[in-house]
């Protein structure tokens, strides 16, 4: 029996999976299809949830999942956070989408050079928090890193849902054909220098969501962009705090592990 001060840790699902197929979706997006005998471990996982991927820095070496946490100075593994784009246990497939930004980081480098049979560690926690709250109107926005989770959200919205979606990608060549409810409008904006600048906030201010009485807002992007978006959302007297999520997926010029505390603090603010 647990006390009020005790917390139950979410169940951890983890396995080493292998590349089944690599799909180049656009100039800046790669979809990696994973398979493995242990895929059934993720039966309680939800599409759109974050996962931690363990990337072998030497893929010729056998990947073994560590018992403890992976630290930034690990010479064999790098850990990064991604979104599970899809899971099909009948087909035995899990899909993860990667943003290609050159060989400047371990995840992008791994995805660019991924070949059939390459190993990848995938760690996920059983989560109960929904991707979105039920509402009459949805406003969803994000940069290139949020495209996977936004894609999942659009697929899972009620068929009669209405709302607006704002997505920032590198170029028109990165626009994807998304499955969405008929009454949800998607606007794509292009920005070939993400981090240096962003179109999300000025474009968001073009919309008047204050007229919507029952709404849910989702935003995911770079740290400083989300910080500004949060300020706008908090100032909206028509929007209750429980009805918006705003997440920082990355911080410009800072590696994921080095920016984790800053981004976590922003999420909890």
Automatic annotation (TrEMBL):
InterPro entries linked: FAD-bd_FR_type, FNR_nucleotide-bd, Riboflavin_synthase-like_b-brl, SIP_FAD-bd, SIP_fam, SIP_rossman_dom
FAD-binding FR-type domain span: 12-135
Record-stated family: Belongs to the SIP oxidoreductase family.
Protein name: Siderophore-interacting protein
Species for this entry: Neptunitalea lumnitzerae
């Amino acid at each position: 029996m647990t006390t009020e001060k005790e917390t139950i840790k979410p169940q951890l699902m983890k396995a080493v999976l292998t590349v089944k197929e690599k799909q180049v979706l656009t100039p800046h997006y790669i979809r990696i299809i994973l398979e493995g005998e242990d895929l059934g471990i993720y039966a309680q996982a939800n599409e759109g949830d974050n996962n931690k991927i363990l990337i072998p820095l030497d893929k010729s070496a056998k990947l073994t999942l560590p018992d403890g946490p992976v630290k930034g100075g690990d010479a064999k593994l790098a850990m990064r956070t991604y979104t599970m784009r899809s899971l099909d246990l009948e087909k035995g497939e899990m899909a993860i989408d990667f943003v290609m930004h050159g060989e400047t980081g371990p995840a992008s480098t791994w995805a660019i050079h991924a070949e059939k049979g390459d190993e990848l560690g995938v760690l996920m926690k059983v989560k109960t928090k929904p991707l979105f709250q039920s509402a009459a109107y949805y406003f969803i926005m994000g940069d290139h890193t949020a495209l996977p989770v936004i894609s999942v959200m659009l697929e899972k919205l009620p068929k009669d849902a209405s709302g607006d979606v704002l997505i920032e990608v590198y170029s028109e060549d990165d626009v994807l054909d998304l499955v969405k409810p008929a009454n949800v409008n998607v606007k794509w904006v292009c920005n070939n220098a993400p981090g240096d600048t962003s179109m999300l906030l000025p474009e968001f201010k073009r919309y008047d969501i204050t007229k919507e009485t029952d709404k849910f807002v989702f935003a995911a992007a770079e740290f400083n962009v989300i910080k500004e978006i949060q300020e706008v959302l908090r100032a909206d007297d028509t929007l209750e705090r429980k009805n918006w999520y705003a997440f920082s997926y990355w911080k410009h010029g800072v590696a994921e592990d080095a920016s984790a505390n800053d981004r976590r603090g922003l999420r909890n603010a």
